[in-house]
Design brief:
By secondary structure, this protein is mainly α. It has a single domain, classed as Up-down Bundle (Rhomboid-like fold), CATH 1.20.1540.10. Helices cover about 75% and strands about 0% of the residues. The chain contains seven helices and no strands. The radius of gyration is 16 Å and the shape is globular.
């Protein structure tokens, strides 16, 4: 039986992108840089997809994989696959725009933005539910932002990811209030 877990698929794509970068280091240049004016629409779409899965190195990939597997799996079960996929698409688009505004001319690589979107979303949900482990989620947010800052992994990607996760939850609450 094939596992249809989207979180695991994203982690596998991240592993594949990291391996490709080992043999083709220039693939990182195809990150968000190509999503700037002057390129065709297909190039822009491809670059936005590629930048999510290419990592700067093995440790960078492991950090994102850990966050996604630890927090993404339960979130995927809670949201369901269609909403989780929509969350991934929203986070990718949201983070792409913010990264381009904050770090123009710099390629963004890795699942940083989505990992941090997951963590931001989870932290907000935990706060809403007064979950006793909310402090742990907030601690992870601070730790991974610090790793991004100190490790040169893209502070803008981490911060835009957190903003994407929080804003997705805010939109979700607004939409559910309007429906009821």
């Amino acid at each position: 039986m094939i596992d249809k877990n989207l979180t695991k698929l994203l982690v596998l794509l991240g592993a594949a992108g990291t391996l490709v970068k080992v043999f083709q280091p220039q693939i990182a240049d195809f990150g968000i840089w190509a999503a700037t004016p002057g390129y065709g629409a297909a190039t822009v779409v491809a670059s936005i997809f590629v930048w999510q899965f290419v990592h700067l190195g093995f440790f960078h990939f492991l950090m994102n994989a850990f966050l996604l597997l630890y927090f993404g799996n339960p979130l995927e079960r809670t949201l369901g696959k269609p909403r989780f996929a929509a969350f991934f698409g929203y986070s990718t688009a949201f983070a792409t725009v913010l990264i381009m505004l904050l770090e123009s001319g710099r390629a963004a690589v890795g699942l940083d933005a989505f990992s941090m979107a997951v963590l931001g979303y989870v932290a907000v949900r935990m706060r809403e539910n007064r979950h006793p482990e909310m402090g742990g989620a907030v601690m992870f947010l601070f730790l991974f932002v610090a790793f991004s800052f100190l490790g040169g992994y893209g502070l803008a990607a981490s911060l835009s990811g957190i903003a994407a996760g929080v804003s997705f939850r805010v939109l979700e609450r607004m939409l559910t209030k309007n429906v009821s």
